[in-house]
Amino acid sequence: MPSDPWVYVLDESSLLDSRPSVVRPCGVPVLLVKKEGIIYALSNKCSHMGCPLDGGSLRGFILQCPCHEWRYDIRTGAFVDAKEITLKRYEWKVTKGRLFISIEV
């Protein structure tokens, strides 16, 4: 396990607004979404059956799973129809234009 949990994933400038991107720091699938200048980092696996969310559709702040249409609020990770079900969220930081995700493995 790395002593520093912060893993470089990409340059912030490569994230396009409202365009989900997948990164895999330490092999963990993390979905990045930049919306209105804010970055959201969530698990890229739907809570329902583990379907990858990066192929889903984004409307406003709601991301819909491409497999079974489960909808998540990217701001909180909460499943829209049952807020007690949530996607894991990851801490992130930008240093000198480089995006890092905190991964504890």
Map the helices and strands.
Layout: E1 6-11, E2 21-23, E3 30-35, E4 38-43, E5 57-59, E6 62-64, E7 71-73, E8 78-79, E9 82-86, E10 92-95, E11 98-102
Antiparallel strand pairs: 1-11, 2-3, 3-4, 5-6, 6-7, 8-9, 10-11
Distance between the termini: 6 Å
Q: What does the main sheet amount to?
A: 3 strands, antiparallel
Q: Number of DSSP strands?
A: 11
Mean pLDDT: 94
How many alpha or pi helices?
0
Strand order of the largest sheet: 1-11-10
Work out the helicity level.
Answer: under 10%
- The shape, in one word, is globular
Beta fraction of the residues? 35-45%
Rg estimate, integer Å: 13 Å
Low-confidence stretches: none
Structural class: mainly beta
Oligomer class = single chain
**SSE order in H/E notation?**
EEEEEEEEEEE
